[in-house]
UniProtKB/TrEMBL annotation:
The lineage of its organism: Eukaryota, Fungi, Dikarya, Ascomycota, Saccharomycotina. The keyword Chaperone applies. Transmembrane segments: none annotated. GO terms for molecular function: unfolded protein binding. It comes from the Eukaryota. Pfam families: Prefoldin_2. Belongs to the prefoldin subunit beta family. Gene3D superfamilies: 1.10.287.370. GO terms for biological process: protein folding. Residues 9-36, 66-100 form a coiled coil. This is Prefoldin subunit 2. Keywords: Chaperone, Coiled coil. InterPro entries: PFD2 (IPR027235), PFD_beta-like (IPR002777), Prefoldin (IPR009053). It comes from Kluyveromyces marxianus (strain DMKU3-1042 / BCC 29191 / NBRC 104275) (Yeast). The keyword Nucleotide-binding does not apply.
Amino acid sequence: MDSVLQLKYNDYKNTLEELQSKIIELGRDKDEHEVVLRTLNETEPERKCYRMIGSALVDTDVKSTIPVLQTKRDNLEQTINSLKNQLITTAQEFEKWKKDNKIQVVRQ
């Protein structure tokens, strides 16, 4: 029985760590999008720029790139918020599970 509890405990810990890592990673991506958007908003709309799509570098202009980057940034923000909610829910479930199973963490 103890090994089942240990596996469940480890599963919760891994899930929480993965969610935190993904939130941090996506947060960095969102920050990068914001830096690029700030720069492009101060640039002439007709100016040529390049954007990576998959592994291809595409020639475009500033005015057509800005809406695409804004949409991506907004989608990243929505995903981050969703992951944060999932993290909170999972952490609450974990705490309830520990309480229900009388789990006490022993630090070495």
